[in-house]
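Exercise (ungraded).
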Amino acid sequence: MSARRRSTAAALLTLAVAIATLAGCADKKDDKAGSADAVTVNATDSACEVSKTSVPAGHVMLDISNKGSKTTEVYVYGDGDKIITERENIGPGTKATIDAEIKAGSYEIACKPGMVGDGIRQKITVTGEGGASAAADPRLAGAVDAYRKYAQEQADTTIPAVEAFAAAIKAGDVEKAKSLYAASRTGWERTEPVAESFGDVDPKTDTREDKVEAGKEWTGWHKLEKSLWADAKIGDDEKKLADQLVNDLKDWQKKIPSAEITATSMANGAKELLDEVATNKITGEEDRYSHTDLADFQANVEGAQKAYELLKPVAAEKDPELSKTLDSEFAAIQALLAKYKQADGTFTSYDKVAQAERKTFSDAVNSLGEPLSKLAAAVVAK
Amino acid sequence: MDAENEQQNGTPAGTDAAAPRSAVSRRAVIGWAGAGVALGAAAVGSVAAATRQDDPAPAPAAASGAEVPFYGDHQAGIATPVQDRLHFAAFDVSEKATRESLVKMLKEWTKAAAAMTGGREVGTGAATGLPEAPPDDTGEALGLPASRLTITIGFGPSLFEKSGPDGQPVDRFGLKAKRPEALIDLPAFPGDKLDPLRSGGDLCIQACADDPQVAVHAIRNLARIGMGTVSIRWSQLGFGKTSSTTPDAQTPRNLMGFKDGTHNIAGTDTAKLSDHVWAASGDGPDWMTGGSYLVARRIRMHIETWDRTSLKEQEDVFGRTKGEGAPFGKVKEHDDPDLKAMPADSHVALAHPDANNGLMILRRGFSFTDGTDGLGRLDAGLFFLAYQRDTRKAFVPLQQRLAGSDKLNEYIQHVGSAHFACPAGVRKPGEWWGQALFG
């Protein structure tokens, strides 16, 4: 893999405006509708009464009652009438709620009886810092520390494994080298998003032939994989490449303490590990000569699960429904992978996995990847 | 394709204030809010969409961007005037899905379908959500009008009973007792060359719109919502409707260059719809009353051999003239056919209601061209969609007859097949697809 955008942007803790619907928020137990925190909006055919004109930034609820005879709409406008959130088609005598994430600033609430015109407007001030709980949960800092430790452990255990792989190559032992190839990649595959954040390590160690830039030499695992499986030979070049792989990976090992890791990048990294599986492993492109894709697949899933488990105390509290889904999807994909694990710990060669089975894998990756993509927002937002 | 001069029936789909969502109109997002017409949301329960246009003359439907009401006694997308584009998808329910997770998904699907057919974004929209979260709506329909999008759901035989690993049927969701007798496993017809990967499915979604991007957007968003519960088994894009349900409009042509659907059931012919299309009370289980049975067949055309066929032979195959579409021995397309004047094995002579005791199906097919087949030939044909009150009494006998002796068989091959029970419509917000079946 390689040549992908660098993943770890610093966590953006200031939130843009979000309209939260029941689809997104039903499971969160912080529903303020009907509570003292909500802004009551009484809309009639000629008025738009707002119970308060100042609310703290963050989660803002509007409790709307249409007491008029016409169907109405309620909008929250920002500068230059930018629509922050809106609710159309509120029938006469009905109620509706708007649930939005709003940053500090000046806004206008507009009721539009008859759903036409600029509406009857009320100014409202949103006070305070940003839109989210900028004071990050201390548990997240703990999760980040634990994850850095995990990433370091993965690198530390990779070095002896890759040294053994390199030693077999330097001894000219094709069969032995083949048997050590997949295991030498496990730690790397578990923490790949962190490795990619360094920019230069990944292209040198984990690039596939079709991704090599013009004028650049192809180095790393996959070049050796081709030599071992496709060419079944070890020459001087391969021995040099084996040494270089060890050195490049030691470089990676040294860099981990300086990696920029945040709760957001952890959660996004988990999602990216599933993206890796979806785009490279499911298709059999990653290990096209050795067909050890399932070993990489397993490592990607383990790394994603580790990141999730560390964030889970916060996720389970903020979005219990999501957390429950992730628990069951991780269990399902692990159970599916277990079916392909042999007694000696290796996996079924991927060229022996039929198209219909690959679809089962693909569906499982979609089933997990989709909710996993919601983890970052669940742990850092609100 | 020619746009049809078609006036919308029924009411514009209004969103309902009780629907628990912040429904953002796609067009409002790009700053057209306040242009009441552009919002396309009239008050709930108002009538006559034409009142939304200052000009009482109906606009060409394809250009109007109009909404087709989502709520009603019957599902939209059956008797609805046929749109220009199709994206059809068949889904399989995943092994780990439960009845509860399936119901939950159907409720979410219904909400999303109501939003999209109303020209609104799914969930929290495409570009306004939390920066750390992927947007709920995939976004490619932002700023596009509703484009007469209809989204129609159907349930396949395998949802009710699926063959298990030991070959024994399994009732996965406690629905076996509710399987309509009419929802048969279609028999094999002579000449079928069905690809299992293009056939069957536990569920289907038919998305039709005048804009292909809107139709694809609908399938894509439902597939995404369904992840973890269902996955796409196969899908089909279609263009250039091959049958119209609007007899006053110009009859469209299929890829063989012949007018198709001259004698189709009109979407406004309530008597014929009741007789031939809608399942009536007592026909089968109550949950299907007001619904219809859909047969989907992917029919590959041997385009290249057809194109080197003489005009006389082509016309003999159909029993109609190529230019006008007139039945043999008559002058005009809509003249009553004299079946005896046609070759006995011509398509029309065999398929016409007069030759089948008045049997009629509502055809709603589309042309397709899915690239080439690697042998230098277009992978093209007709994606045949037919709705009927009882498949056993309609498509099956008709196709048995055609498969046996239709002259057209030399130039076509059925390569995909599926059968679905499409329930009655969702009548109001808060109801959901399959409620009568699962409820």
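Further reading is listed at the end of the chapter. For now, observe: Chain A has 13 helices and ten strands. The longest helix of chain A spans residues 138-170.
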